[in-house]
Amino acid sequence: MYLIEVVALARLPRTLPQSFSYFSLESLEEGAVVEIELNHRRLFAMVTRSIGVKQAKQDLRSRAFQLKKIQNIISRASIINARDRALLQWISEYYLAQPSTVLKLILPSFITDTFEVSSWPARHEIEPYPRMIEVVPEEYPIERYQKAVEHALQNGRQALILVPEIERAETLADVISEIVPKERLLVVTSSKTPRELRTSWHRVRNGEPLIIVGTRTSLFFPFTNLGLIIIDRESSPAHKSWDQEPRYDGREVAAKLHSLHGGQMILAGYPPSLNSYHLAKDEQVARLIPSRELVTSPLSLFVDMAREIKEQNEFVVFSQVLKDKLRNVIQDGGRAFLFVNRKGFAPFILCQQCGFIFRCSECSVPLVYHVQESLASATLLCHHCGSKNKPPDVCLECGSHKLKAYGIGIERVAKDLKKMFPNVPVLSLLHGEPKETKNAKTALEKLKKMSCYIAIGTEFAIPLRLPRMELAAIISIDSALSLPDFMQTERLFRSLSLIRRLSSKIFILQSYAKEPEMLIDLFHGSFEHFAEKELKERRRFHYPPFGELIKLTVQDSSREEALTQVKRLYAGLRIVPHYFGPEAVEVTNPYPAYIEKKKGNFIFHILIKIMDASKSRDMKLLIAEHTPDTVQVDVGPQSLL
Fold first, then answer.
1. Is 354 annotated as a binding residue?
2. Which residue, of 67, 132, 133, 397, has the fewest CB within 10 Å?
3. According to the model, what pLDDT value does residue 434 have?
4. Residue 425, helix vs strand vs coil
């Protein structure tokens, strides 16, 4: 007889144990699937340990309850290999996620539907290489990737190139296909059909030497022969899962894969994340290539729009220097890219009589004013819940007709550009609604065939593989300056750097801020200067990479109920600093989200700051015990707001 430990393959409350003990008449290998009875329910479960009763006597004596027998053996063969079981356990503990939830990430439905698997190929032992970060110009990553990829294939290994977006996967795969045989290249993203993913899954499982270019989905393929991991555009926030449990970071999961499989790891892209830069400075990775060795910067001009408005005695979207440079570029048959960080025509409509701002009834945000073809088609749109309203003729508060659209949106910029350059194509690159995304893709295909145009885009356009332009400009990025978020400065520097690198000749940054010192500092500073200054601040406040953050979120349609829940959660979590010490961990008081109401729900957060990494695992176990399933858990949040 054997004592076996299992984890249920059904979602159980986070506050309950996730591992259970049963007995079996035969030994079962780790990863086998059995049927158990738990709380009068029949569930599938995965074996995590199997030990003879004689060896487990001491363990059995200490139990205050009688063990139940397993009901049935569903699969004697292991459904996942040893390294994936280790990955499952790590993700579950690190991200405070139930094993059943993590297993859904790791195993595709065609396995969990039947639990029919063949034996696993023999393990390949790979000598580990030091992790490496390489700062590479965005338009030429292939020059750095080629050598590593070819080396992996020559040694019969698999290589994973992790990319942040589906579009990037397709683009990079086209480039990679020029240097490796196409039959050795797989693209793994959620856009692929179930049949394509199944074929790729089995090829990877069989240990074929392959190059896998994929988004986060590819991290959970059953690698048996992995010798190289490349994280492409590693500073991109798109590597982080934000809309589903567990909210894992693809870069951290890739690093764990590397520690389990060995082999080489390259963190690529410019600018690097501050976490990677810190690793390089700590000599935990092999090499950091200074950006100044790679790119010749264009002529960069900073324009104070407050002074511009004063001189022209009216609000203007385009400074005189930007208009002059645009005309020169267009006259020479060149191309320009203008960045606008707001969708719509204007961010909000204001009553000039009483100061009333039209807001979404379901979200605590102003409605964005959109004007597509004409004023007749104008709408007020909430970008959070999607609600649409026709713009009113009078103020809902005081009845005044003095309504005015304030701020700069991409539609306004497009309208003004078409007036200034009626014979020049103006192409918008933004996404959101299906129509917008479709139009952006059409515009992207058009500009690849054109030599003279003006492209305008939101944040969506930055990762696209745009051609180098003669001019790149930021119309305004001031709204991002006011966000009180610890990663905001890093995000700003990344946006400035990537937009600047789109231009081969001229880069212009406009600012309406009254005191734009921080923006000027980012504009003129090198990456190394920025990184050292920012890391100094983060060390002071124990922000990553000098501490670990966990954001817990409570939401409810009733503000009072949301407050009650978050206060109850906070009361339970106070045991964590009491047990481990306030110098090791900090739990903040509950605070409202930056957008307190969204889609009809009121949102409150609690932030946990872990300052003693050696106790992180034990702290998380205690945090999980006091965090109900109704609470959203985000380990390593990209925003505290």
1. yes
2. 397
3. 47
4. coil
